[in-house]
Amino acid sequence: xxxxxxxxxxxxxxxxxxxxxxxxxxxxxxxxxxxxxxxxxxxxxxxxxxxxxxxxxxxxxxxxxxxxxxxxxxxxxxxxxxxxxxxxxxxxxxxxxxxxxxxxxxxxxxxxxxxxxxxxxxxxxxxxxxxxxxxxxxxxxxxxxxxxxxxxxxxxxxxxxxxxxxxxxxxxxxxxxxxxxxxxxxxxxxxxxxxxxxxxxxxxxxxxxxxxxxxxxxxxxxxxxxxxxxxxxxxxxxxxxxxxxxxxxxxxxxxxxxxxxxxxxxxxxxxxxxxxxxxxxxxxxxxxxxxxxxxxxxxxxxxxxxxxxxxxxxxxxxxxxxxxxxxxxxxxxxxxxxxxxxxxxxxxxxxxxxxxxxxxxxxxxxxxxxxxxxxxxxxxxxxxxxxxxxxxxxxxxxxxxxxxxxxxxxxxxxxxxxxxxxxxxxxxxxxxxxxxxxxxxxxxxxxxxxxxxxxxxxxxxxxxxxxxxxxxxx
Length: 474
Hints:
Blueprint: H1 7-18, H2 23-26, E1 43-47, H3 53-60, E2 64-69, H4 73-86, E3 96-98, H5 101-108, E4 114-117, H6 124-133, E5 137-141, H7 148-161, E6 165-168, H8 175-185, E7 192-198, H9 221-225, H10 251-260, H11 262-267, E8 277-284, E9 294-301, E10 310-327, E11 333-337, H12 341-350, E12 358-363, E13 367-371, E14 378-380, H13 382-387, H14 402-412, H15 420-439, E15 447-448, E16 453-454
Parallel strand pairs: 1-2, 1-4, 2-3, 4-5, 5-6, 7-10
Antiparallel strand pairs: 7-12, 8-9, 9-10, 10-11, 12-13, 13-14, 15-16
């Protein structure tokens, strides 16, 4: 295989160069690359072609797509059909196809410039680290990584290898979140004291490991398991529900946290400090194998510069009952979404539909709410929004969609809007929430950032860093 540094060697070098302290120390911006001709084509590979991988594929085909990597041959067949319909200029027969990204890097790394990673969470670290060590630019779907140690190593690698990176939190490129930030920074609601974010979907379950099922034809199961401890196949792991399992995903928080906590993280400058504690307030279901079905989490942040202490809340999942007044497309009663009580109160009082997911910011002078991805921000009540003078647009706007921002950054030599120096600390916040979930209700997680460990609930430290299977290390 291509010569690469070992994980232990890289960690030592990173610690010596950057320290493993606060996010602002570890996630310093990388040095910019030299510019590339804007009209030149980048050679791209997509790792993980189904589901969210199609968004990466849509960006990759605007460049020169050279290879696909997916453990499921059915996904690859679907991808070929997609290419024929939506990218007729791409000949699927000429693409190089792999089921193991390690082999792809060994065989064709000299032929590629950019790597899109849309595989499950437990593969984000290894794929990205190999790519960056080979000088490739990397776009990674959220969350950035599966553990906090991985997040820090990935951010340090981006800086070390001077590559362009981007976390796949598409809303960060949008106009909506920029207006949200500009309103809050203009003092629209005064000092923000609390925030309440919620997810539009639920992940999790109950019970232990599932019984073995036959591996479907065309699925390369050994490669799907990858660096994690081996277990037999079950269709609740692949292709869709892996986020619900501790070994492979990061629950609803990992799914939606990097989207709907982005507004609080950016607006309140949470990357400038670490929370004094993180705690699970409510959870339902869950086990040693699976995330809970329903969660309420709170991060307690100290003052940051001129911003006061703030309590950041997260809600996900559903109540185990239905709302007979609302039905799905098939006429079945909808399950009741676990949304913050303040959302229900605002909807009832002001008739404001706060949608399936979003965030409410509570300031000492008012309230502002946004939808998923920080979009459509409005002060509540509407009269307050109309009365407040619209702030100027002071934040830079992104050229094109999120993936295009990454590709433009690769060619023009600037930092993508959510490069790993930003996406890393945001993901670390999300993963600290996962530690609180594992600790359980009533046990505050106290975090020693410099030593990267929980000081009062030591058993959750098993989630901070992990050992990988032989053959799946760097």
